[in-house]
Design brief:
Layout (H helix, E strand, L loop, with lengths): L2 E3 L2 E3 L4 E2 L13 H14 L3 E3 L8 H13 L4 E6 L1 E2 L6 E2 L3 H15 L6 E4 L8 H13 L6 E4 L3 H10 L4 E5 L11 H8 L2 E5 L34 H18 L3 H10 L5 E3 L6 H8 L8 H10 L12 H4 L11
Protein name: Aldo/keto reductase
Pfam families: Aldo_ket_red
InterPro entries: AKR, Aldo-Keto_reductase, NAD(P)_OxRdtase_dom_sf, NADP_OxRdtase_dom
Length: 330
């Protein structure tokens, strides 16, 4: 089973490469991370997704160690636009910043081209035509094959696509995060743009492993997210326990059920779960091997959705950087 991004056929389940460098507790060793990526390629993964901010470039560097000998096996995506250091912290999608960022990413990735390069967030300070124009120049120069955007709303996607055709939109999409259903899902389908779902297993929450978020490491980002809070988690855990039972009855892992649900939402859907565990990586890759009935997928969607989940997907400070349409607060 293959799907298409930027004219390239890839497996619908790609590999998110953030976890090896950032966000969810202590990352694995460099040696283990590189080994994980090699095992992913051996399994058949052919879509790797990283970004310049993951570990302040560390994720790209680790991916680069693999690409230097196996570049032709990978459809490579990376991103720019979020500034995480110092006084300039925020979003910068100016042509100058993106042009330099592409050069920096190419060096870390040890390659002469990136197949898909995203603007990681919408920058309201820069005209869309200017940002897209800079990416078009990079495409013409052969440094990137195509461009995409992450967490943009439908109107801005249409505007950018009108300047130069967009290959992909990446945003959070899972059973418990449905914001794309407010417009982006239909817009991307209409325009023939791939929709790439990050955090498709709800940041690991619905995999049936996590029971107590207070035991997460202090630097784990999930500790600051409302759905994992002391008030909201018990309510969400009760849903997850029922979801785990549903997956077991269907003969799949909870992650496989979650991934199959995402992929079922349209022929243009892709998912990029991240993990540091080889077995999880294998399970994710084979999530589509056992086709589940529409009734099982419907039951999963009825159980965990925007109306049943407690808490917003992001803390307030992060919500301010998201352009994707949002649900009205209850």
């Amino acid at each position: 089973m293959k799907r298409t991004i930027a004219g390239t056929h890839v497996h619908p389940i790609g590999l998110g490469c953030m976890n090896v460098a950032w966000a969810y507790g202590s990352p694995p060793s460099e040696e283990d991370s590189v080994k994980l990526f090699h095992e992913a390629l051996d399994l058949g993964y052919n879509h790797f997704d990283t970004a310049n901010i993951y570990g302040k470039g560390k994720s790209e560097e680790l991916v680069g160690q693999v690409l230097k000998t196996r570049r032709k096996e990978v459809f490579l995506a990376s991103k720019t636009g979020i500034i995480v250091d110092g006084p300039k912290r925020g979003i910068d999608c100016s042509p100058e910043a993106m042009t330099q960022s592409i050069e920096d990413s190419l060096k870390r990735l040890q390659t002469d081209h990136i197949d898909l390069f995203y603007m990681h967030r919408f920058d309201p300070k820069v005209p869309i035509a200017d940002s897209v124009g800079a990416l078009k120049d990079a495409i013409d120069a052969g440094k990137i094959g195509s461009y995409g955007v992450s967490e943009w709303n439908s109107q801005h996607i249409r505007e950018a696509h009108g300047v130069h055709p967009m290959a992909a939109v990446q945003t959070e999409y899972s059973l418990w995060t449905r914001n794309v259903e407010l417009g982006v899902l239909d817009t991307t389908k209409e325009l023939g743009i791939a929709l790439v779902a990050f955090s498709p297993v709800a940041r690991g929450a619905i995999c049936g492993v996590m029971t107590d978020p207070t035991k997460l490491e202090e630097k784990d980002l999930r500790r600051s997210h409302p759905r994992f809070s002391e008030d909201n988690w018990p309510k969400n855990l009760s849903l997850i326990e029922k979801f785990v039972d549903l997956a077991q009855q269907a003969g799949v892992t909870p992650a496989q059920l979650a991934l199959q649900w995402v992929i079922s939402r349209g022929d243009h859907l892709h998912a990029i779960p991240g993990t540091t565990k080889v077995q999880h990586m294998k399970d994710n890759f084979h999530a589509l091997d056992k086709k589940l009935g529409d009734d099982v997928l419907a039951r999963a969607g009825d159980l965990i959705n925007q109306q049943t989940v407690s808490g917003h997907r992001y803390p307030e400070v992060m919500r301010n950087t998201i352009d994707t349409e949002d649900f009205v607060a209850a």
